[in-house]
């Protein structure tokens, strides 16, 4: 989670976290559908209006790190070193996100999400929004010769890689299996455009060693 620097920002972040923690505690104890917004506000000892100033919907209480995840995905593009290819940077960030979301204690949360149509729908819309933000970050990189369609396709592949790896029996192994396939798809796209085969290697990073081990 991004750590705010100013006193006011820290206070807002602490309140937001208190609300999210209270919500998750109630959801896991009673069930998502059995808990209302007023229940969460009372548990967190805040006004309902305060809760809605931090979370726009009940579903958002479950995905409280939504914005942070989105920033991390786009930051993997914009914050990488000038000589670092794109795919290794994205793979590293996806691996970190997957590890975070499969840490000890996460399983009951994912079971809750799987059992709620509203939460599954919210998660799907969140993934699409993350993919759009990632595509925009890739498209804005002047060193990447990608069409808008290619940017969106790559972003969807990467976000789907997170979902698939998170659900796998061995998430780390799944990341290592998926990313070479994304690289292979990029190589095909490069050939279809008639560019030199090395273009994909230079801009996205075609390295079997780099893609299979940190």
Automatic annotation (TrEMBL):
Residues 13-73 form the HTH tetR-type domain. The keyword DNA-binding applies. Residues 193-214 are annotated as: Disordered. It holds the Pfam family TetR_N. Residues 36-55 bind DNA. Keywords: DNA-binding, Transcription, Transcription regulation. Residues 205-214 have a biased composition (Polar residues). It comes from the Bacteria. PANTHER family: HTH-TYPE TRANSCRIPTIONAL REGULATOR BETI, HTH-TYPE TRANSCRIPTIONAL REGULATOR RUTR. This is TetR/AcrR family transcriptional regulator.
């Amino acid at each position: 989670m991004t750590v705010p620097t100013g006193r006011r920002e820290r206070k807002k972040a602490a309140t937001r976290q208190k609300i999210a923690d209270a919500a998750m505690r109630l959801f896991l104890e009673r069930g998502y559908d059995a808990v209302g917004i007023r229940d969460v506000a009372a548990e967190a000892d805040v006004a309902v209006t305060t809760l809605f100033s931090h979370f726009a919907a009940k579903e958002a209480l479950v995905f409280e790190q939504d914005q942070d995840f989105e920033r991390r995905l786009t930051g993997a593009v914009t914050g990488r070193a000038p000589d670092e290819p794109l795919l290794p940077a994205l793979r590293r960030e996806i691996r970190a996100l997957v590890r975070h979301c499969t840490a000890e204690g996460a399983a009951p949360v994912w079971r809750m999400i799987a059992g709620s149509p509203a939460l599954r729908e919210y998660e799907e819309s969140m993934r699409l929004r993350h993919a759009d933000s990632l595509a925009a970050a890739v498209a804005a990189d002047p060193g990447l010769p990608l069409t808008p369609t290619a940017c969106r396709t790559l972003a969807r592949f990467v976000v789907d890689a997170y979902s698939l790896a998170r659900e796998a029996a061995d998430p780390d192994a799944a990341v290592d299996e998926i990313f070479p396939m994304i690289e292979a798809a990029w190589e095909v796209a490069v050939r279809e455009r008639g560019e030199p085969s090395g273009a994909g290697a230079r801009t996205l990073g075609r390295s079997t060693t780099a893609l299979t081990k940190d």
